[in-house]
Design goal:
Helices cover 43% and strands 17% of the residues.
C-alpha cells in the first residue's frame, strides 16, 4: 500500500517548517520568499501530495461545508429544497452534507453532532418542535438557518412559506365551491410548526364559517386501506364533502382511496393536497394542490446561511415565501348561484 504523504513530509523535503507549508496551502505566499514557495511547490509535485480539505479548512477556520438536516429526504418537497440549496452552494464554492432526521429529536442530535465533528461552517435545518432546546445545549458557535418550520419567528435566521394563510385561502375557496363538510387527513401536527399552521388555517376558516369538519390522524405506517376505513362515513355522496391531505406523503395514499369513488368527484367529493407533485396533474381526476415554492425556499435558506457565515450583511435574516393554489379537476365543482349560500 502506498504510504500516505503528510504535511510533515512536505515540510521536510522542502526544508521549511510545517507552518510555512500551511501558509502555502492557504495561499498566503506573502509569508515566504519566492525561493521557499518554489521549493514547497516542487515537493508537492514530486510526492503528488493531496492535502485533506477538511483538515486544511479546520486549520483555516472554514471548511466551505454546510450541514442540511431534513425531516424526510424521500419526499418531493425535500428533493426540491436540497436542489435549491445545492445550486446556491455551488455558485459560492460550498458543498453540503445532507442528513435525514425522520422527524425525531434523537436523529437530529446525531446529525448535528456528526456534522459539527466534520467541521461544517453552518446548518440549514427543518426542525421538530424540540430541536432548539437540543441545539442550545450543544453550545455550537455556528450559524443556523431554519426552513419550513421555524419554532420562533421573533429571533434567529429562518425561511418559511405562508402555510397558515395559504390553507385559510384554499379552504375558503372550497367553501365557495359549495363543499359543506370537510375532512383533514394529517400527520401529528405537534411534531412540526408547519403542520400546526396548516391545521389552524383549516380549522379557523371552517369555525368562522360554521361548517363541520373532522380530523383524521395518520403516520408513516398508515396504509391506504386504513385511511379508507376512516373515510368511509364521508364517502356516501349524501353531502358535498372535501378531503384535505395535509402532507404530501399522505396525498398519494388518500388519492388511492378516493379514486375508487371518482364518479362522485368533484360534485359530491373533492380532494386537495399539498405541494407541486407532477403526478397530481396527470391523475384522473387531476388533483388540486397548494404549491410551496420549495426550490426557491432552498435557495433562499442557502443564501441567508452563506451570508451569515461570511458576514457580508447582504441578506435579510427572515423570509416568508408565498404559496399558490393550483386548482385542478378534483375541486372544480359546478355551483349554481342559488347554492352558493350554506346553512
Amino acid at each position: 500500500m502506498k504510504q500516505k504523504i503528510t504535511i510533515n513530509d512536505i515540510a521536510r523535503l522542502a526544508g521549511v517548517s510545517k507552518a510555512t507549508v500551511s501558509f502555502y496551502l492557504n495561499g498566503k505566499y506573502e509569508r515566504m520568499s519566492e525561493a521557499t514557495r518554489q521549493r514547497i511547490e516542487a515537493a508537492i509535485r514530486k510526492t503528488d501530495y493531496r492535502p485533506s480539505m477538511v483538515a486544511r479548512s479546520l486549520n483555516f477556520k472554514q471548511t466551505h461545508l454546510i450541514g442540511v438536516i431534513i425531516g424526510d429526504i424521500t419526499n418531493s418537497f425535500a428533493a426540491q429544497i436540497v436542489k435549491g440549496v445545492d445550486e446556491v452552494c455551488r455558485s459560492h464554492d460550498y458543498q453540503m452534507i445532507v442528513g435525514d432526521s425522520g422527524y425525531e429529536l434523537k436523529n437530529e442530535h446525531k446529525c448535528v453532532t456528526s456534522m459539527a465533528a466534520m467541521g461544517v461552517d453552518g446548518f440549514i435545518v427543518q426542525p421538530t418542535v424540540h430541536f432548539e432546546t437540543m441545539w442550545n445545549e450543544q453550545h455550537l458557535e455556528k450559524p443556523i438557518v431554519y426552513f419550513d418550520s421555524p419554532n420562533s419567528l421573533d429571533k434567529g435566521l429562518w425561511v418559511k412559506t405562508n402555510n397558515y394563510e395559504a390553507v385559510l385561502e384554499a379552504t375558503d375557496m372550497l367553501v365557495s365551491r359549495g363543499y359543506r363538510r370537510f375532512v383533514m387527513v394529517t400527520a401529528d401536527p405537534y411534531v412540526l410548526h408547519t403542520r400546526l399552521e396548516r391545521n389552524r388555517g383549516f380549522t379557523d376558516c371552517l369555525d368562522e364559517r360554521g361548517i363541520p369538519y373532522e380530523v383524521i390522524m395518520a403516520d408513516a405506517s398508515t396504509t391506504a386501506d386504513m385511511i379508507e376505513e376512516k373515510l368511509k362515513p364521508y364517502l356516501n355522496g349524501e353531502q358535498p364533502t372535501c378531503v384535505f391531505a395535509c402532507n404530501n406523503w399522505l396525498l398519494d395514499k388518500t388519492y388511492l382511496v378516493l379514486r375508487k369513488y371518482s364518479s362522485l368527484m368533484p360534485q359530491y367529493l373533492g380532494l386537495i393536497g399539498f405541494d407541486s407533485l407532477e403526478w397530481t396533474e396527470l391523475a384522473v381526476p387531476s388533483i388540486t394542490t397548494i404549491v410551496q415554492p420549495a426550490y426557491e425556499e432552498g435557495k433562499c435558506a442557502a443564501r441567508v446561511l452563506i451570508d451569515a457565515i461570511e458576514g457580508t450583511g447582504k441578506e435579510a435574516p427572515n423570509h416568508i415565501l408565498m404559496c399558490r393554489i393550483n386548482e385542478m379537476t378534483s375541486t372544480k365543482r359546478n355551483v349554481s348561484p342559488m347554492n352558493t349560500e350554506h346553512d
